[in-house]
Design brief:
Helix content: 40-55%
Distance between the termini: 33 Å
Strand content: 5-15%
Order of helices and strands: EHEHHHEHEHHEH
Number of helices: 8
Low-confidence stretches: 208-256
Bound molecules: adenosine monophosphate
Number of strands: 5
Mean pLDDT: 81
Shape: globular
Strand order of the largest sheet: 2-3-1-4-5
Length: 261
């Protein structure tokens, strides 16, 4: 199974991606984690992107494509992946599609995790106080949410028209969100005729309501059922190029041509 998670910072993508990966026996690939690893290790990429992450701006597309290439290829060979934090823009989605589409390794299902701005801000400030992440300060969070908002609608539209898109209310308690997501993923998998689990499904470890990674002390406040809307896939209309690859595929050119952050 190959899927991706779209959602604003603080919507619970990381938490849910870990659980979904565990449940289906697939790899969890987080572009943010990979980038932060480079920063922590002081690699050339890390030094290039550190300021960008610190400001809450997006890292150049070519760099993101480069660091994702090997993990995505390896995960595809091992039975699938859930991408967390990629793509952030339609340009990234198109670049990924041009690479993965012809190889048959592209995503089949996109999940959109929603949450309101006030809730996101509360969660991220709580996370920042615990984790010390430099981009979890009020000013940077606000900018990151603006960056997400600017790209969200076209990105969600892109997947709505190309793949199965599932929209889930990420303000619900963490276990409800996981259960709803699995229900709808199973339904979508059946509709798409995807194979059953490569490994037996793993039981989901129940969390107390306040144990969300993004909101350690903030229980969800919204009530009502988690909304999930599977949308049947339609055929791809994206242009393709035989020269595209995970490297040098970004819509704005490979990272060699892009300005640093
Ligand atoms: P995240 O952990 O997903 O919140 O990402 C943290 C930061 O990493 C973001 O604010 C961006 O600076 C950078 N980043 C992560 N994923 C991407 C991506 N797909 N494209 C561009 N920048 C990204």
């Amino acid at each position: 199974m190959r899927l991706l998670l779209i959602g604003p910072p603080g919507s619970g993508k990381g938490t849910q991606a870990v659980r979904i990966a565990q449940h289906y026996g697939i790899e969890h690939i987080s572009s943010g984690d990979l980038l932060r690893h480079h920063v922590a290790e002081g690699t050339t990429i890390g030094r290039t992107v550190a300021a960008c992450i610190h400001r809450g701006d997006l890292v150049p597309d070519g760099i993101v494509m480069d660091i994702l290439r090997k993990p995505v290829e390896a995960a595809t060979r091992r039975g699938g992946y859930i991408l967390d934090g990629f793509p952030r823009t339609v340009a990234q989605a198109q670049a990924a599609y041009r690479v993965a589409g012809p190889l048959g390794t592209g995503v089949r299902i996109a999940v959109y995790l929603t949450a309101g701005r006030r809730q996101l801000m509360t969660r991220l400030l709580a996370r920042g106080a615990q984790s010390g992440r430099t981009d979890d300060t009020e000013q940077v969070i606000s900018h990151r949410l603006d960056v997400f908002d600017a790209a969200a609608k076209p990105l969600v539209d892109y997947y709505h028209h190309r793949e199965t898109l599932i929209t889930i209310d990420g303000e619900r308690p963490i276990d409800d969100v996981t259960r709803t997501m699995i229900d709808h993923l199973d339904q979508a998998r059946r509709q798409l005729g995807l194979p059953e689990h490569p490994t037996p499904p793993q039981p989901i470890v129940e969390h107390p309501r306040d144990a969300c990674r993004c909101s350690p002390r903030q229980p969800s406040t919204r009530t009502g059922r988690a909304g999930a809307t599977p949308v049947p896939a339609t055929h791809d209309k994206a242009p393709r190029s035989p020269h595209d690859g995970w490297t040098h595929t970004a819509a704005h050119g490979g990272h060699a041509d892009e300005p640093p952050c």
